[in-house]
Amino acid sequence: MNLQENAQANRMKEDVRFLTEIRPFRNYENIESLEKVVSYIKEQLSNINVGHAEQKWLAEGNEYKNILCSYHPQKQKRLIMGAHYDVCGDTPGADDNGSAVSGLLETIRLIFESKPELDYGIDFVFYCLEEPPFFGTKKMGSYVHAKSVSKNKENIIGMICYEMIGYFSDEKNSQDFPMPGLNLIYPSRGNFIMTVGIPEYESFNKKVFKGMKNKSKVPVYNFSHRLGRSLASMSDQRNYWQFDIPALMINDTSFMRNDNYHQLSDDMETLDYNKMSEVINSMMRCLISLN
């Protein structure tokens, strides 16, 4: 199977459609809506005969769930890939973070359809409670998961977080920057995807970046700078750093490009599903290169 050209844009669009049409919105207060997401993820996994597990914890008296599945669970070496499925407030959350949930589902579909020979296994995790008011606390689903695997960290290659991977623009000056001088390094058009990490894990960062960049139909850039740590820590990868596990984020630069960030306008029609699918194709090549 040609992993480089197999991601299905239409399949990803239907995932995002389902997620963004859930009402009330899938934030931490709407437990039934979060359960609809859980059921949908389980259904998609069942469709390709992939088993799953639940990881549960309590926050403010409510029970929340991570959904987990594994490829090559018998392998000692592990890679973790994750995306959060909750949204911030009353928003549809197409880019944040329906795009990433769709991307993770599509990665799982491709892996289990093609069954590539890897010398490591992959643990896929769909997280809850990434968004406020739990962001930065030990109630984040990714903190719960990171802590649970920390005893095995010597066998973990690293963690790859999908966070907002669907918004692109070919318009000139559609890309903003958080620090002076970055406009001399990166394009002014927001039509690229980024690997975002921190210098402490530069070796892992470079492996993922080089793996994704190779033959990619979507430009891939890398960001790893000590002054940009706060920006690099804006999703679930941050919790793996606390246990000294290499981790980075795959990101479309979020509010540096997408004005719909945490807004009601973050709807499915704003995303570019063809480019989203190419991001996943690039990741598939990366996963092969990590062998």
Number of helices: 8
DSSP strand tally: 8
Computed structural class: alpha/beta
CATH hierarchy: architecture: 3-Layer(aba) Sandwich
Number of folding domains? 1
First-last Cα distance: 18 Å
Please write out the topology.
Elements: H1 9-21, H2 31-47, E1 53-59, E2 62-71, E3 78-84, H3 94-114, E4 121-127, H4 141-149, E5 156-162, E6 193-197, H5 202-213, E7 220-224, H6 229-232, H7 238-241, E8 247-251, H8 273-289
Helix pairs in contact: 1-3, 1-8, 3-8, 5-8
What does this entry look like structurally?
With 291 residues, the chain is of the alpha/beta class. The protein has a single domain, classed as Aminopeptidase (3-Layer(aba) Sandwich), CATH 3.40.630. Helix content is 33%, strand content 18%. It contains 8 helices and 8 strands. It has helices at 9-21, 31-47, 94-114, 141-149, 202-213, 229-232, 238-241, 273-289; strands spanning 53-59, 62-71, 78-84, 121-127, 156-162, 193-197, 220-224, 247-251. An 8-stranded mixed β-sheet has the order 1-2-4-3-5-8-6-7, with helices on both faces. Helix 5 crosses helix 8. It is globular. The chain starts with 8 loop residues before the first helix and ends with a helix. The mean pLDDT is 96.
